[in-house]
What we know:
- The structure is a single chain.
- With about 180 residues, the protein is an alpha/beta fold.
- The chain has seven helices and four strands; from the N terminus they run βαβαααβαβαα.
- The protein has a single domain (about 5-165), classed as Rossmann fold (3-Layer(aba) Sandwich).
Amino acid sequence: DSLAKIPWVDENRMGVMGWSYGGYMMMWLEGHTTRFKAIASMMGVYDLRSMYGATEELWFPEWEFGGQPWNSDLYQKWSPSNFVKNFKTPALVITGQKDYRVPYTQSLQFFTALQKMNVPSRLIIFKNDGHWPNYVKSMPLYYNAHLNWFHKYLGGSPAPWNMKKMVRNMIFKEKK
């Protein structure tokens, strides 16, 4: 509601995106509101119970949810996976195959649910990236995917650059 009050925001063309905890929040929003026209979730947590057994970071969930999944109902309560029946907003899902903080299987589970609910969705897996697209060739693809996704669902001008020229820049001269 606060976002729609900003003078330059068109409340009929709002999209949201988030990475890591923000990615989790995008998955949560997917099951709780249809206010947004498009969502982009990067490296987000979809199912807190399955995440617990697959991450190298256990301090945060144990502290936030008061113990392990088998001792705390909060893991179940706060998992976006419990709200699949409400999924409706087109979603771009991006993840890195080498992510050990939020394993890429969390994004696969989210994407599978979107597909089963017939929600327009796209999955991008960067094979050389971890919890952030840090492989230099991934960056232009990462940003361009967001711009194209939001352009498709929110309208407006397309990305103002040539994607091929960005990927094949002076650093990466093509071999002939």
